Amino acid sequence: MKRGKVFVISGPSGVGKGTLCTELMKLYPDLAATTVSVTTRAPRPGETDGVHYYFRSDEEFDRMLAKDMFLETVDKFTHRYGTLFSEVERVLAAGKNVILEIEMIGGANVKKRIPDAVLIFILPPTLSALTDRIVGRGSESAEQIRIRQAQVETEFDQAKPYEYFVVNDELDLAVERVKAIIVAEGLKADACDVKKQYFGR
Ligand code: ADP
Ligand code: 5GP
After folding, report:
1. Is the CB of 133 under 6 A from ligand 1?
2. Are 103 and 151 in contact, with CB atoms under 8 Å apart?
3. Beta carbons of 5 and 110 less than 8 angstroms apart
4. pLDDT tens, position by position, for the chain (201 residues)?
5. 107 in ligand 1 pocket by Cβ < 6 Å?
6. Nearest CA to ligand 2 atom 7
7. What are the extents of the domains in the chain?
8. Which residue CA neighbors atom 9 of ligand 1 most closely?
9. What is the CATH number of domain 6-199?
10. Does this model's pTM top 0.85?
11. Residue among 13, 30, 19, 14 nearest 182 (CA)
């Protein structure tokens, strides 16, 4: 079975990463799957442990770190987040591409450890649309919204190492653009195999 690739999807809070990934997997369930990260933040209404995140205490997060269970971790918005090796392997073992919906420091760290990982940054059509979306989602306190907005400029700076930039204006179009990247990157990997087989390099 052909092994999938790792795709990192990042972008400012509220840009629509979660919505886009959910739609992509609904339309193309065999193409890719997301992993479930560990976080020390509290679940939002409607979030389930083991589905949206593994919600763990700080002490449990420390124990997992000590056991070297994480591909990468980050401290963000006063909470900690981490990608488990076991989650990446679970998706690859199912023959799918892996989508890591994580922030940019994590994305850069993944690229260091997995050089052929592909970094995709999702942009809002405008900054005011971004504010509307995060407020409209209604899941954050005014304080959390303020913290997240204050970070937007830094977040755009952190996007420099990213390889693809996709504007999430119309959701359906954005989904198709991300799908096109995943398919094309798979073909690129196939081309490498063909070159090795036929031309010995
Ligand atoms: P993120 O995961 O990046 O924090 P979400 O997926 O939670 O963002 O989306 C934030 C809000 O924006 C949600 O209410 C979602 O329905 C909305 N949204 C996502 N994509 C679009 C889009 N293309 N146009 C308008 N609203 C969108
Ligand atoms: P939220 O609290 O809104 O679910 O996520 C906050 C930010 O943390 C988002 O940018 C999200 O992509 C990122 N994030 C979620 N899980 C991980 C992870 O495992 N690692 C890293 N580096 N970032 C993560």
Report:
1. yes
2. no
3. no
4. 678 999 999 998 889 999 999 999 999 999 999 999 999 999 988 999 999 999 999 999 999 999 999 999 999 878 999 999 999 999 999 999 999 999 999 999 999 999 999 999 999 999 889 888 888 888 778 888 888 778 888 888 899 999 999 999 999 999 999 999 999 999 988 887 888 888 876
5. no
6. 103
7. 6-199
8. 16
9. 3.40.50.300
10. yes
11. 30
